[in-house]
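Need tokens for this chain, all 286 residues.
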Amino acid sequence: MKQRVEQWVGVKVDDDDLVVDGGPARFALRISLRILVFADIANVIAHLALDAAGLLPYPLGPAVIVGLVITTIIAGPVSFVVIFLVGEAIRKLAINRNEFERLSATDDLSGLMNRRAFFNRLEVEKSNGALLLIDIDHFKKINDAFGHQAGDDVICGVSNVLLQAFGQASGKVARIGGEEFAVALGGLDGLEGARVADEVRRTICASQMPKRGGAVSVSISVGVADITTGRSVEEIYKACDGALYIAKASGRNTVTHERARSGLRKSLSAGGTMTTSERLLAAVRY
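Here are the structure tokens for all 286 residues:
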């Protein structure tokens, strides 16, 4: 019995109808009407049983009517009040739970999804698309030159640009640590995602990020990897992180697709007269 009650409460907590305004009242009315119908049916059955046994001291018809009236007057309001209070309690529980889930999935500074929530959702909702890993270039210099508050302001400014660019239904944006962000794009392959990422890179590079006391210019480096149903999230992340590493190693302020890694290996193994740095740049620029 206890387990069934817990299951019922769990189902009702997930019921969006209870969270909206007026939800508990509608919930109480619906349940109390069912209780009233059940009570009236039980009342009629009880009167019929008593009459059949010769134990009813009044005529059956008037007795049934009086019983129904009394049941309706008592059972209806009492059950409505009790169920309404239960509904309000469940509503508050649902709101608190939803708020807890939102806070546990949100980065405090930027307001974006946090690392744990992002990769959990990517694991569950993974479909063909592109993963972007974005890193603010020379972020330590910003902190050293202007202070950590300025660094926080820059993180918030970049977050806003990313939300404007990717925060629609087709994208999910997260701050996954420090000055690093992640974006999951559905419906785009990696190269298409790289082109979109490069547009955002250009926007950020041409903008002045507001900070207390002024503004500062920043740039970003982006690694891109393909999200496919046949790859694990760990494999996708590793490939994307490798692409980001190449982007930063090649001079920053650039976008690199994971396929550049295989191009880099081929160019390095080919030898020739180019320096390692030159071969690196030739592999990652597109």
